[in-house]
Q: What sequence folds into this?
C-alpha cells in the first residue's frame, strides 16, 4: 500500500466540522473507557525562547479492534502572527497498526484548527445550556473562525461578538465571518464588551496573560479556553477559574501543562479536585456535566493526540475512497535493502 499525502486544502475539503465533532467525541469517549494510549506530549523550546517543536504520540483501539496509531509533529511559532503562515505548522503521521508501515502524512495546521474547535463543540454540546445562543469570541485568527463554525453546529447562535486588540483585524474578521456564516458578527470595542451577557465564550488568543476576567462572565455561561497550552501561560484570571466547574480533555495533561489551572493552584485558590472530570468521562456517563442553569462551566482544552489520530484515520479512508491526495512509495522492505 502506498503512503497518502494530504495538503492543507485537501484536509479542509474532506473534513466537515460536524463530522469532526463526532470523531473527536468518539475518540475522547474511547480514551475514557481505556481503549487507547495518550502519553504526555514532549516539547523542545528553540533558541528564541518562544518557538518550540512538539511531538504528540498516541493510539486508539484494543487488541481485538486495533485503531489509529501515530503521532503529530508540530512547531509553534508565535512570531508567525501577522504573516502568511499559521503559528502552528507540522504533520500528522498515521501508521498501519498491523505492520507499522506509514499509511498517511497529513497537514497538521488544518487538522489542528478544525479538531480543536470540534473538541470545543463537543464540550459545548455537553455543558452549555440548551438555550445558549449569545456567543463571544476573544481572538480573530484561525481558531476564532473555526470556533464560530463549531459553535453554530451545536447551538442555535443568534448573536456573535468578537474582540481582539487590533481594531483592523477584529473588524476584518467580523466582516468576513458575517459574509461566510450569514449571521451578523459584531466587532466589540473591548474584551469586556464582547463577553458581558454572553452565554458561550471562546478564548482563542495567543496571549500568555489573562484576557478573560471572572467578573465579566455571566451566570450560566459556558467557556471554552483553547489558546494557552503552556504551564506559564493563561487566558483566564484566577477568579474566572474559581467561579467555574472545570472540565478538561485529559487530566494528566492539565496537571502537567495547563497554566489556566496550574497558576490558580500555585496561588492556593484551587486544588487538584477543582478538575471535575474529563470530557470523555462526561460522554460515557462516569462524570456529571452541567448541574444547573446558573453555574458556569469551563472547558480547558490542551489538545491531545488521539483527537488528531481519529481525524487522520477518517481522512485516510475518505481520501482513498474519493481518489484525493498524492501517493508515495514509503515503508522499508527487506527485499529492497542494500
A:
Amino acid at each position: 500500500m502506498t503512503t497518502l499525502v494530504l495538503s492543507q486544502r485537501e484536509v479542509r475539503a474532506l473534513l466537515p466540522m460536524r463530522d469532526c465533532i463526532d470523531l473527536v467525541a468518539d475518540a475522547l469517549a474511547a480514551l475514557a473507557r481505556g481503549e487507547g494510549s495518550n502519553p504526555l506530549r514532549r516539547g523542545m523550546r528553540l533558541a528564541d525562547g518562544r518557538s518550540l517543536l512538539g511531538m504528540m504520540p498516541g493510539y486508539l483501539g484494543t487488541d481485538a479492534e486495533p485503531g489509529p496509531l501515530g503521532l503529530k509533529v508540530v512547531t509553534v511559532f508565535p512570531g508567525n502572527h501577522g504573516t502568511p503562515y499559521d503559528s502552528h505548522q507540522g504533520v500528522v503521521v498515521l501508521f498501519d497498526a498491523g505492520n507499522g508501515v506509514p499509511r498517511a502524512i497529513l497537514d497538521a495546521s488544518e487538522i489542528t484548527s478544525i479538531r480543536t474547535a470540534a473538541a470545543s463543540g463537543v464540550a459545548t454540546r455537553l455543558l452549555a445550556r440548551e438555550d445558549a445562543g449569545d456567543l463571544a469570541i476573544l481572538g480573530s485568527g484561525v481558531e476564532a473562525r473555526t470556533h464560530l463554525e463549531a459553535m453554530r453546529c451545536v447551538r442555535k447562535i443568534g448573536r456573535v461578538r468578537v474582540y481582539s486588540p487590533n481594531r483592523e483585524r477584529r473588524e476584518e474578521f467580523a466582516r468576513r465571518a458575517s459574509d461566510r456564516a450569514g449571521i451578523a458578527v459584531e466587532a466589540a470595542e473591548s474584551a469586556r464588551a464582547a463577553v458581558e451577557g454572553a452565554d458561550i465564550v471562546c478564548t482563542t488568543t495567543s496571549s500568555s496573560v489573562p484576557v478573560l476576567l471572572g467578573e465579566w462572565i455571566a451566570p450560566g455561561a459556558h467557556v471554552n479556553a483553547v489558546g494557552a497550552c503552556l504551564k506559564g501561560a493563561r487566558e483566564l484570571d484566577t477568579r474566572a477559574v474559581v467561579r467555574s466547574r472545570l472540565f478538561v480533555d485529559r487530566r494528566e495533561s492539565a496537571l502537567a501543562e495547563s497554566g489556566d489551572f496550574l497558576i490558580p493552584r500555585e496561588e492556593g485558590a484551587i486544588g487538584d479536585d477543582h478538575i471535575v472530570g474529563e470530557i470523555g468521562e462526561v460522554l460515557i456517563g462516569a462524570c456529571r456535566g452541567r448541574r444547573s442553569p446558573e453555574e458556569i462551566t469551563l472547558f480547558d482544552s490542551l489538545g491531545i493526540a488521539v483527537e488528531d489520530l481519529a481525524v487522520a484515520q477518517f481522512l485516510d479512508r475518505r481520501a482513498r475512497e474519493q481518489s484525493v491526495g498524492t501517493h508515495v512509495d514509503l515503508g522499508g522492505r527487506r527485499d529492497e535493502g542494500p
The mean pLDDT is 94. The first helix runs from residue 8 to 14.
